[in-house]
Prior knowledge:
The chain has 22 helices and 19 strands. 37% of the residues lie in helices and 14% in strands. It starts with 17 loop residues before the first helix and ends with a helix. Helix 10 packs antiparallel against helix 15 (385-394) and helix 11 (275-288) packs across helix 12 (317-324). The protein is globular. By secondary structure, it is of the alpha/beta class. The strands form 4 sheets. Strands 1, 2, 3, 4, 5, 6 and 7 form a 7-stranded mixed sheet that branches.
Amino acid sequence: MSFGLMAHEPHGGVLKDLHVRDAHLQDCLRAESETLRSLVLTERQLCDLELILNGGFSPLEGFMTEDDYLSVLETLRLKSGILFPLPVTLDISQQDLADLSIAVGDRVALRDPRNDDALAIISVEDIYKFDKVKEANLAFGADDPAHPAVAYLRNHVKDLYIGGKVQAVQPLVHYDYVALRYTPAELRAHFKKLAWRKVVAFQTRNPMHRAHRELTVRAARQRSANVLIHPVVGLTKPGDVDHYTRVRAYQALMPKYPNGMAHLALLPLAMRMAGPREAVWHAIIRKNFGASHFIVGRDHAGPGKNSAGEDFYGPYDAQELVAKYQEELAIEMVPFQMVTYIPSLEEYHPVDEVPKGTATLNISGTELRSRLKNGTAIPEWFSYPDVVKTLRESYPPRVKQGFVIFLTGLYNSGKDAVARALQVTLNQQGGRSVTLLLGETIGSESSSNPSDLALSVDAHNANLQRIAFVSAELARAGAAVIVSTIAPFEVSRQAARKHVLSSAGPGANFFLLHISTPLEHNEKMDRKGNYIRARKGEIPGFIGVDVPYEEPKSADIVADLSQQSVPYTVNNVILLLETNGLV
């Protein structure tokens, strides 16, 4: 579908809307997909495929072959020479490739992980190995796991990439905010209906407040344009406000714009947080969605600090790279004008227009998250009451937030006794539901079950991740969750902590208690004789006998129950919770 030569021309000249292109083949493609081998997509692959199919990633018509992949990494261009700054790839493990017997020339169905629907068929043109270190250094500027995209590359991306064009079987089905989800063709048609000639697009992955409204209105006024609020609702930076909350906050903000000035539409993008390269990518995407102008912020799409505590990218690197390709992009960059609040005028003004010595007020994103989490006031000069109310609904005050207390220690160390006593204490206090997850497997009534004490390393790790998942879901709902499990390995404990902190929303409060009672004392007090049986070889793989217990490196509380009582330990836990404002 071509839109001809005009100011809002798609990238590459033609909008690659594969749903429109393949509509006449849909029945045949759907039938064919049922006869093909299938790949179930990851969440990131699903986001990428949606934007390939609807034309958001024009001129792409599939996942990159090795030639395009290497060209993009090394030159920011596809092999054809068209500007495209980041790789869009389909990864697969060597094992899955072998199990499915996929080879060049095959056609493979790509399926939605949520409902197993076939969304597209890929014609495999290329299967290739790649260098993760090279990709990290070129695409993201450093092979540093502090960068979320590098961590994802290291921990989640498989061994091989499959390249090839795709055909659209059917669109993804969304159940949330359907009226706000537009394809590029739909959004272009909407602009045409409203007779919007110039459109300034604003990219965000955070809630918007008065300053954002001010800077977007200023940008529109300067360009005689309308405003597209185009927030990302795919994958963003771990720890960001969830998209359900953010969209409700955007909806609360939209009436603050003059009637007819602005429009809200959602973008199902999986961000890479790639700074300058990502800013160029964002500009291309907004160009495909019909925008004529694009606001590029200070440290646009930056991931924060690297492992050395320094910013990954310079504050204006993104603006400089977009400016470098301005003519080729054919979408005008609007540099983000930082605005600040002047109490004496009760107005926001660009920082470079504020006279030296003038008193100003600002609240950083970090401080805002802290105020939401702690329940402290958010002033009206900073945000609108309707927006704050929406955020407060998802971020209750500390005393209403859930939390996870994770007890780890050797068998018979007393951790179960502490967990039970803590459950009683918290139930007595009231105000929250209290859940106790006791034992090496969810559902066990006691960690003294010998079969649970001899789990393999992989079984321990897998079970701990199940426990972390359940704990995070309960804490998200405001529950106090008490976990008592041996959890002998540091890496799996850290993974559990990370999952709770990244997935429990307002309940992302995690405290590690190491019950450090010595092995000798635990054996001496073992009335059931499990240590004796383990030393006789009757319980192979017993933690502390056959398999070493790795002591936690950073426990919030360490308690040796051969030296202190259960009530004393429970009181220390309550004091820890009180210090953190949770009781």
